[in-house]
UniProtKB/TrEMBL annotation:
It is an enzyme of class 2 (transferase). It comes from the Eukaryota. It comes from Rhizodiscina lignyota. Residues 387-402 have a biased composition (Polar residues). 5-methyltetrahydropteroyltri-L-glutamate binds at residues 19, 120, 526-527, 572. This is 5-methyltetrahydropteroyltriglutamate--homocysteine S-methyltransferase. Zn(2+) binds at residues 653, 655, 664, 677, 738. Keywords: Amino-acid biosynthesis, Metal-binding, Methionine biosynthesis, Methyltransferase, Transferase, Zinc. L-homocysteine binds at residues 442-444, 610. Residues 387-416 are annotated as: Disordered. The active site is at residue 706.
Length: 770
């Protein structure tokens, strides 16, 4: 029979239970035992849910309190000394690596957190030392959780991140020169030991994730697969059978690795992203190997098209036979919300088009049954699915002729500002009269508990729109007063009215629907509710003008309007799968263009259009796809911003810097001012701006906003001094790395005070010298 498999299930729980438990634990409100019990409860609930849905192969060890890569760092004892020296309890040491720890005389920053492939999930980057050794933790998590499930009567398939990916996704610690992949020999015995323990506990198969196989790999990494999987498969009967899983791309360009993997039990491939790789992979795998076909999307919320999924599975079965095919989710379901059942407010017409994690589990079981016992055995479900596909395709909601008409009239000129930068700069100088080293923030100020409570009351109808508006106005007044006291140069209104920088716009745009409970983990306990693009996008009315205009009216300094750019709106939403993303980006760009022009007309002469997700959207492999993406992505940013006068200053913000490999696109945005995350990187990264003779203005972040730690004035001066080695004084803005919404007021004021003082020091220094 054809088995169904899930590669991983979301951890947060139906009501973000894990977020709540973690945050309560961090705040000292619940005990460690309470937290661990909640984790156990969630795991059990999720296993049962999958079992009840009819899933044959259910994952374990997909759960993590903070992040699954961090789990591996701790399990293999790849823990940098500064954490192990704290002698904290294991779970506290774990959180210290994930989010830093400042308590009871311990003061350690977090490890670096970076994007997981092209998703909005962040993982904790393994950090290796030159003399790195590894040691398996006693009672390793995968073994404990496998037994936990088994005790509950559920036999699971443990998921482990593979050794090649674990190393390749890590880095050498600061001042260390080790190439992570060179540590493979030291790491493998630990994997063998872990796998042996799993086998002893009763695990017959394990899923080992090697997602780096979708990248273009350096030769050393490619060559690591052979020695790794010689040890972890085949002749070694004291370990479970291994399914090696890849996702988020195709592995065709890494085929030369596959012959070295023939002793593996099977391979999993993502056929949602790359269905075309099926036939070539079938041609390459070993004659006994299992092929796990990822046909249910782990990255989006659309109902699976049963007809297409069954066809793909049938193609595999024809060549390999039923016993050698598994049907599965394309990737872990981590990137999808828990269940559609929680959505009580969705229009039933569109709700019928969606499938969240719990529903996807049912889908995969139905697909497996259809290909095992024949479609007739699930005829009702297949017919209902076809009807739903048909209804979506012909719905009026997906198609708006006015939007199409406007898109057809977009011209090249609409992408360009009136004049080149030097002329704009002159006009802006006159208009804004800013000092050198101007100070600003990235947009949001602390989203306090009070703000969230008031918004929640408003959403539930406990307070009126008027009362909520008054509350927001008061918040804006407060942040303006604080910015005056801090003596910042370009103000922001603080974004108190926004639940999230993308969802807020989704809620105001036609063509979108949004949810009440569809949370997805972004990092640690932080979650997002990506709005869903269901149809052509347009802007029924201004979205941000009221708040910005009000803020400007009560402020003596220039007010910066704040928008989320087209690519970030697209990437951090669930996009349509029936229209190319470039089309959706252009629709967003046109809506935002109107907003930019309206802001200018309302007297807002500095406008920031955030594009932190531009980098993340970059295709994972180098090549023409990347250039194609960058071309339409850059165009959409330009289209959204180019409608203003020379004297209006366009800012953009990026909190994921690594610009080196696509700097030409950053330059092509033609933004007057860029603010970028920089505090955790080496100032050398700024060299690219020098090498490329970047002429426009830049605010490299002078401090990290992810931690409550307050940087001293001296630290900030040191950062500025470093930056001045690369950038010209009159090119430099002084700002934090990113928005301050996740921070508390106390540390925010202290940090900004130091930042403004540091800027003033340089302002005076350079005023004297010129
Ligand atoms: N979409 C998105 N992606 C992003 C970022 C981002 O800002 N947005 N930033 C980067 C880092 N990622 C982040 C992701 C989430 C958060 C974040 O702060 N999330 C908040 C939720 C934000 C939100 O939607 N808030 C809503 C709902 C708040 C809420 O939980 N309300 C309670 C009720 C109120 C209460 O009692 O507290 C409820 O619904 O139960 C609001 O403010 O209205 C959280 O997890 O806590 C921050 C950074 C990268 N990706
Ligand atoms: Zn940011």
């Amino acid at each position: 029979m054809v088995q169904s498999a899930v590669l991983g299930f979301p951890r947060m729980g139906r009501d973000r239970d894990l977020k709540k438990a973690n945050e309560a634990y961090w705040a000292g409100k619940i005990s460690r035992d309470n937290l661990l019990a909640e984790g156990k409860r969630l795991r059990l609930e999720h296993w049962k849910l999958q079992k009840d849905a009819g899933v044959d192969i259910i994952p374990s060890n997909d759960f993590a309190y903070y992040d699954h890569v961090l789990d591996h760092i701790q399990m293999f004892n790849a823990i940098p000394a500064k954490y192990s020296e704290t002698k904290l309890e294991p779970i506290d040491e774990y959180f210290a690596m994930g989010r830093g720890h400042q308590k009871d005389g311990v003061d350690v920053p977090s490890l670096e957190m970076v994007k997981w492939f092209d998703s909005n999930y962040h993982y904790v980057k393994p950090t290796f030392q030159d003399g790195q050794t590894f040691k398996l933790a006693s009672n390793p998590k995968p073994v404990v959780e496998f037994k936990e499930a088994k005790d509950a009567g559920i036999t699971t398939r443990p998921v482990i991140l593979g050794p090649v990916s674990f190393l390749a996704l890590g880095k050498a610690d600061r001042d260390q020169s080790v190439n992570p992949i060179s540590l493979l020999d030291k790491l493998l015995p630990v994997y063998v030991e872990l796998l042996e323990q799993l086998k002893n506990a009763g695990a017959e198969t394990v899923q080992i994730d090697e997602p780096v196989l979708v990248f273009d790999l350096p030769l050393k990494v490619k060559n690591a697969f052979k020695p790794a999987y010689e040890k972890l498969s085949g002749s070694n009967t004291s370990i479970p059978k291994v399914i090696l899983a890849t996702y988020f791309g195709d592995i065709v360009h890494n085929f030369d690795v596959l012959p070295n993997l023939q002793s593996l039990y099977g391979i999993h491939i993502d056929l949602v992203r790359n269905p075309e790789q099926l036939s070539s992979v079938m041609g390459q795998i070993g004659s006994q190997q299992i092929l796990s076909c990822g046909v249910v999307d782990g990255r989006n919320i659309w109902k699976t098209n049963f007809k297409k999924a069954i066809e793909l599975a049938e193609t595999a079965i024809q060549q390999l036979g039923k016993e050698r095919v598994i049907v599965a989710t394309s990737s872990s379901l981590l990137h999808t919300p828990h269940t559609l059942e929680s959505e009580k407010k969705l229009d039933p017409e569109v709700a019928d088009w969606f499938s969240f994690a719990a529903e996807k589990c049912k889908e995969i079981a139905i697909i497996a049954k259809a290909v095992t016992d024949g479609p007739a055995t699930v005829r009702d479900q297949i017919e209902a699915n076809a009807k739903s596909m048909q209804a979506r395709a012909s719905s009026k909601r997906t198609n708006n002729p006015q939007v199409k008409d406007r898109q057809s009239k977009v011209t090249d000129e609409m992408h360009n500002r009136q004049s080149p930068f030097p002329e704009r700069l002159a006009a802006q100088k006159q208009h804004l009269s800013l000092p050198i080293f101007p100070t600003t923030t990235i947009g949001s100020f602390p989203q306090t508990k009070e703000i969230r409570i008031q918004r929640n009351k408003f959403t539930k109808g406990d307070i009126t729109a008027e009362e909520y508006e008054k509350f927001i106005e008061k918040e804006i007044q407060d942040v303006i007063k604080i910015q005056e006291e801090l003596d910042l140069d370009v103000f922001v209104h603080g974004e108190p009215e926004r639940n999230d920088m993308v969802q807020y716009f989704g809620e105001r745009l036609e063509g979108y629907v949004f949810t009440t409970h569809a949370w997805v983990q972004s990092y640690g306990s932080r979650c997002v509710r990506p709005p869903i693009i269901v149809g052509d996008i347009s802007r029924p009315k201004a979205m941000t003008v009221k708040e910005s205009k009000y803020a400007a009216s009560i402020s003596k300094k220039p007010m910066k309007g704040m928008l989320t750019g087209p690519i970030t709106c697209l990437r951090w939403s669930f996009p349509r799968d029936d229209v190319h993303q470039s089309v959706q980006a252009q629709q967003l760009a046109l809506a935002l263009r109107d907003e930019v022009v309206d802001l200018e007309a309302a007297g807002i002469y500095v406008i920031q259009v955030d594009e932190p997700a531009l980098r993340e959207g970059l295709p994972l492999r180098a090549g023409t796809e990347r250039e194609k993406y960058l071309s339409w992505a850059v165009d959409s940013f330009k289209l959204s911003t180019a409608g203003v006068k020379n004297s209006t200053q366009i800012h953009s913000h990026f909190c994921y810097s690594e610009f080196q490999d696509f700097f030409h696109a950053i330059a092509a945005l033609d933004a007057d001012v860029l603010s970028i995350e920089n505090s955790k990187s080496d100032a050398k990264l700024l060299k690219v701006f020098v090498d490329q003779a970047y002429p426009r203005h830049i605010g490299p972040g002078v401090y990290d906003i992810h931690s409550p730690r307050v940087p001293s004035e001296q630290e900030i001066k040191d950062r500025i001094e470093e930056m001045l080695q690369y950038l010209k004084p009159d090119q430099l803005w002084i700002n934090p790395d990113c928005g301050l919404k996740t921070r508390q007021w106390k540390e925010t004021k202290a940090a900004l005070t130091n930042m403004v003082n540091a800027a003033k020091f340089y302002r005076e220094k350079y005023a004297k010298s010129t």
